[in-house]
Amino acid sequence: MQTRRIRPRTAAAGLGACAALSLFAPLLSPTSAMAADAPAELYEGHVQVDRGKTADPQKFTGQVFDDVNENSKLDGDEKGVSGVAVSNGVDVVQTDEEGRYELPVRENMTVSITQPSGWQVPVDEDKVAQFSYNHMPEGSGDFEFGGIEPTGDTPKAVNFPMIESQASAKDDQNCPIAADTQAYDKTEMGYARDGAVGDLADRNDYGACGVLLLGDNVGDDLSLNDELRDVYSQMNGPVRVAPGNHDQDYDAADDSHALDTFRDQFGPSYFSYDVGKTHFVVLDSIEYEGKANRKKYKEKISEEQLTWLENDLKNVPKNAQVVVATHAPIVTHKQVVVDNAKDFYDVIADYPNAVTVGGHTHTQENLVAGETRKEWAEAGIEKLPNTQIVAGAVSGDWYSGGLNADGLPYSFTQDASEPGVLTLEYDGASRSERYTVRNESDDHQLLLGVNSPQWRDWAQKAQEWQDTDKEGEAPEAVSERVVTRDDLKQGDSWLTSSFLAGTSDARVEVSFDGKAPKQSEHTQPGKGEALAKGWEFTDPYTASQNLRTSGSVGQSSSHLWRTEIPSDLDLGTHSAEVTGTDRYGRDFTKTVRFTVVEDEAAAKTESQKLLRKDGFDTQQKKEVRDPKGLDSEEAKSARND
């Protein structure tokens, strides 16, 4: 019998990636430079291809096997694994008792397996999971970034190795999802590495599930895929990759070849895998409009994928926990995003525990099943059938804004969030989730400010200045922690709370100066209302920074609460203690101090003092980047909604 090798990772194993990254800016942080030891069950290997002549070129055959000695070869005494789902992108079959499968050959296909719970597929030297084979006899042709080389005739067999994994069999699983790394150059890749990706490198709680990259992994330049691999090679579990609209071959004639380079370098554009008692599905929700309409796309899930999804789910119990991850989310708090959302929801209708997760919009949202919105209803979705999470972005607002004390762009998002990573948490019976802000602890969940008439007047002037390409002098900045007595007396001055963990069934309370707490109003509760958009529905903390730099402000959020500030507060400094309670009963508390002044003249004086104290005046003298991502179609769309 073969004996299983255990190959512990040594300190030298990561030197190649770190050495390559030394060329990046900013400098490598000490925390992200050294990842925790990789799990013993994580092993390097590859899919085995037998190039011999097949008996029937129209049939694709092979075995899924237990790679006991971890050499990626089906040796004589290694056994097949039965009941594993194998697909050609439309059909889904299960392996027989000997691990064998047979599928119809398609001209342009990726054959892949669904990793079962209790098993782990191999990874390559950069931790990217290896579970697929591209079949394209003639290849892509002459693509700028390579595409797929001709694969030739149908191989005699394609065999998929796996090893047994106690870790992936456990009910308790943490599954990070990193959306929109979207680096347009090596500097931005360095920001990702020293930000949210570095946080993942420091964690060791996701080894079995691994990390899912949720598309727009680079910004159009697919030569940066090598740097992306280097950055994520420090992960402490397998890396799986979904495609986005900025990961396409723009010289492809049509959508059928738009992801050829992606498929060559990362794997299938849609696939599934099991971890614990959760079934993960990744779909491609971008339809490329072709070379003639360079970079144009629709947010749509192809009919081919919906057929595959139906076939894939036939092997999944109806009461299972299911995650359907797509780059473009099915819906956001603003609108239905995917054109054929109703068709998609019909396919997953029998799976009440299914949750959809998206990226693309560079927002961070948690929309609960059962919510209603005017815009959704107008698009034919009367009630949200499944919870939709929008996973934020590693890049935040496309690496925009000035640089913070760590040398990273503030990059506050248009919906009042920060760069970070979503983690889905499973215990076998239920799901929870958390959004971890870059370089912050898990309890960093509240962004607080004062939204007053004076602030809104300044915000409008600042937006007009931004809209005219910053022509003339910028309006003199005001602090979002100053309010005049007159503004308080006339009402409409709120303490705003951007509660990152907030959902429509969460609760936010505010205590002013230690008095009895008041319950806050959720500005977008999902009870059939239209989009709440305007300066009065804007978080002044993040908006103030963006209005001074990038001008990227959305004036709406799915996770903003507001509480009217008492009109009888005395002149001077006051405190507001805010407690947000999420839908799982977890409490997060933060205190903000703000100042009541006599009039606008006093407000200007106090604002300048607070801004200097906050460091924003000196920050303005630092580099304020104009990232390419702000010119992307999704960024423009977000600003114009």
From TrEMBL:
Stretches assigned to the Calcineurin-like phosphoesterase C-terminal domain: 390-588
Region (Disordered): 603-641
Segments forming domain Calcineurin-like phosphoesterase N-terminal: 76-136
Keywords associated with the record: Signal
Listed GO MF terms: hydrolase activity
Signal peptide: 1-35
Matches recorded under Gene3D superfamilies: 3.60.21.10, Immunoglobulins (2.60.40.10)
Residues covered by the Calcineurin-like phosphoesterase domain: 211-363
Gene Ontology biological process terms in this record: carbohydrate metabolic process
Keyword Amino-acid biosynthesis: no
Protein name: Metallophosphoesterase
